[in-house]
């Protein structure tokens, strides 16, 4: 028994040991498996955490920042541009951009509203709700913002992977207010909002357009806006804040504000009033002479180089710089479109359709046209200066002592150089003439002789000294540079034609700067358009001073040349620029460019001649030749600088001087024609009235019969030119209230005066220094013939002489 019990006990004890061991084994295996599985399960998680926290830390940090913060740019205010008198030529005003977040618009439809109690999303219903909200947004935007493209808006609204889509730019305040009200009423600020920006405005529209340029999305694109873009644009600021999950901006300790720095203001040397005078004169000449290739004009202070005005046609409106406004340019664009289309059609390797070819042609022609209107003929282009260049040759020859005022020159009408015969504008020749007469006659043979006296080397020295081979350095972009011979390439024939300003090209800026050196004491100055740069509070940070590049001729030579050039206007080819009371000097020019039918007519004038304050260059490019007489324009005017540019430039210079407050000084002959106020003679006898009128240098004629004067025309106190004839009414005779103005164009001075006064009007003459020449005729009148005007009205009549100014080169 005991033995059996002991055996069982041992068996029981052994089984217990084995059981415990088995349990421990199972436990250990379980723990091991759990550990292995746990580790295996957490390896991807650890890897993911490693990837997020270490490997791609920067990316996810940026993503989190983007989700949690709102970073808005704060536009700086672009500096204003003022004319010399403080008139605003360019300014910036606040506008707004309408921004949509398509992604946030989609998220604004809550999925919870389409999820049942068990958490199941009704996907179809949710997508239908999103689509409905998107469609509603498209409809709202089209109704809210005029002029939107519905197809484009629809695409933007449905671009749900994007958080920023620009619906419309440059929204004005009135329209922006309506949008704000919509956003508030419809609680759309989480995905539709306005951001402030700026828009450039040009209050004077197209005034000085090519000089000012314009601003596009990239900043200053042309003109001063481009040249001074870094100064004008300032530095944008930033607002960085946190935002809620719904996109609502929160201002807290984590907000960061960086103020915008406004741009500097510019004050120009350009005067808006003088600029308007230039542009008006250009347009008048284009109409009066049927000019086909535009025109240009520059007004400058010859002593400092400050540009008072610079104009070019065709021009544009920088408020809408891509629109072509010039009728002639639009016509050229249509012609070019057809020519380009024909060329594309002849060479069509891609086998495009006619419609596709025409679209290409229209695009190319438009690009050419818009570039043409942006380009300034006064800044970018070059031209043959013609006889205006003779002033520089004159100064060089006087400085070198190869000519003097006592020299004489004989002109037979032509001169032979090598194998070429070069003709004078006067085919019969000028005969024997003094130096001043040769300049006044704009005699080509005389200036060929002067050029030969200088010789190629001396001529070229002065050509360079007057700046004809270098840019002026004006603070405007795109300045052109002349095309001239190299010194070693010049031959005698080149010297001959260069002596009267042909067969080489310079820019108008080069030419006016060189001419200014002739009459300002001999100094070549650097032209400029920006006088000062200042902060918004008016503190000047930079001011432009006059820069004398070099002295070309002496003060004495400059004065001698100026005296001779004044005679060009008082006696020579520039006499159509004469204005009583002002001493104007200058030189005419007619450049036959070598292109059939294209002549550039110009006038370079300055005043007062004894102390020049302004110099003006005016040119018209290609007055259209008449089919019956190529020497005349289609409007009947002889094609030359003396007949076209001078009659426009003289009154322009006088207008500028009047504006500048320069006092008129009349000589003895001019004083007789100065305006006077008519005395009161009603009630007087004719004998007493005659005495009163004689004191005022006025004549009279009577109408009716009687002992005393019952009425007078014009009334007492009226301003009429001296020498006018006052009408005295006697007895029952009374003046009529109005009458028909006669047409006096083409008449002589006396004939026009008599015709107007017989009709009850008075004449104020202008345009030439001598009105009694057989070649002097009325070329324009302020009130056109056939129009009705009040009796006694003074009619301004422009007179001119037919003059030729050295345009001929028959090599």
Automatic annotation (TrEMBL):
Record PROSITE patterns: PASTA (PS51178)
GO CC, any one term: plasma membrane
Region (Disordered): 1-22
Xref: InterPro entries: Beta-lactam/transpept, Beta-lactam/transpept-like, PASTA_dom, PBP_dimer, PBP_dimer_sf, PCN-bd_Tpept
Domain PASTA: 675-732, 735-801
GO molecular function per UniProt: penicillin binding
Main location: membrane
A single GO BP: cell wall organization
Compartmental location: Membrane
TM helices/strands, residue ranges: 31-50
Keyword annotations from UniProtKB, A to Z: Membrane, Transmembrane, Transmembrane helix
SUPFAM superfamilies for the chain: beta-lactamase/transpeptidase-like (SSF56601), Penicillin binding protein dimerisation domain (SSF56519), Penicillin-binding protein 2x (pbp-2x), c-terminal domain (SSF54184)
UniProt family annotation: Belongs to the transpeptidase family.
PANTHER family, A to Z: PEPTIDOGLYCAN D,D-TRANSPEPTIDASE, PEPTIDOGLYCAN D,D-TRANSPEPTIDASE FTSI
Protein name: PASTA domain-containing protein
